[in-house]
Design a protein that fits this description.
The structure is a single chain. By secondary structure, the chain is an alpha/beta fold. 49% of the residues lie in helices and 16% in strands. Helix 5 links the parallel strand 3 and strand 4. The radius of gyration is 22 Å and the shape is globular.
Length: 294
């Protein structure tokens, strides 16, 4: 090979290597969501909640609906949240909501949301609803799993239709292992079945390691890439007696930030990745406050 050709090839290789370092990498998806279970605090702590949300990059709040919380409190909070670029979705659910006999409980939630949204101004309305239904913590799951899945699926279909009629974004919180459970009538696995009927899911992929969090949610992310839906990767910060490996409760601020970033970097490779969903607001706020106080 002529000397000039060798020089040209070497120069081309150098240029390619330089481009790898010079060209900007794909931006990391940094949006976060959080679950806020104690809705009563939105009256006295609204400013703190929203200030914390802005600081932490929270763009969505799943806010539990509680009958004792006045609608005016919800209106005021959602209006302020929307002003900060944060969407608020109604949240509720109990393990036994999966049972066919309890479908009306989800129906009542959706009826409440419709009545509330009709009476509220556009900037005060819930933009979506999330169901957190976990029947696998009940004894009946061990005895009649297939039947429970059928009833759970029937309820989800009814609730999804109603949410769609109202123009609400519909999501569900699901355990990472739901992709190992057969769907109703044996049509694939239940996780995909739910993804086919909702706009988004929050995968409770709770581990104290960002890569493991991603790996536990990867199948759902890949399914959502094909379906055109969204997936939140769940992250646990609350104390739990189920094992220290499931939560960042005892981890340092540096560890939490590093592992959250690792999960987000991996998740960003998927068009369906919505961001990290942190469980839950009060645990997150307590941890941040304790860290800043050191």
């Amino acid at each position: 090979m002529p000397a000039k050709a060798k020089v040209a090839i070497a120069a081309a290789v150098v240029v390619c290597l330089l481009l790898l370092f010079v060209l900007p990498s794909k931006p990391m998806k940094q949006d976060k969501a959080t679950w806020l279970w104690d809705a009563a605090i939105i009256r006295s702590e609204a400013e703190d909640i929203l200030e914390f949300s802005r600081k932490e990059g929270i763009t969505a709040i799943f806010l539990q609906i509680q009958a004792e919380v006045p609608q005016e409190d919800y209106r005021r909070f959602i209006r302020s949240a929307r002003g900060s670029g944060i969407v608020v979705h109604a949240l509720d659910g109990q393990p036994d909501w999966a049972y066919g006999d309890n479908r009306e409980k989800g129906d009542k939630l959706l009826s409440w949301i419709e009545e509330y949204n009709i009476s509220a101004k556009p900037e005060e309305r819930f933009q979506g609803v999330q169901f957190d239904v976990e029947p696998y913590v009940l004894e009946r799951w061990e005895r009649e799993q297939e039947q429970v899945v059928r009833e759970w699926g029937g309820n989800m279909e009814a609730w999804t239709r109603e949410a769609g009629r109202q123009g609400l974004s519909m999501s569900a919180a699901v355990p990472f292992w739901l992709d190992s459970i057969p769907a109703p009538e044996g049509s694939g696995h239940f996780s995909r079945w739910i993804q086919e009927r909702t706009d988004a899911i929050a995968v409770m992929s709770y581990r104290d390691d960002g890569k493991k969090m991603y790996e536990l949610a990867r199948e759902e992310l890949e399914e959502a890439d094909k379906l055109g839906t969204s997936v939140w990767i769940g992250m646990e910060l609350a104390d739990t007696d189920e094992g220290a490996h499931l939560t960042f409760h005892g981890k340092s601020e540096k560890e939490v930030e590093e592992e959250a970033r690792r999960a987000a970097v991996l998740g960003t490779e998927h068009p369906s990745f919505a961001g990290l969903a942190v469980h839950h607001y009060q645990a997150w706020h307590r941890k941040a406050t304790a860290m800043n106080g050191k």
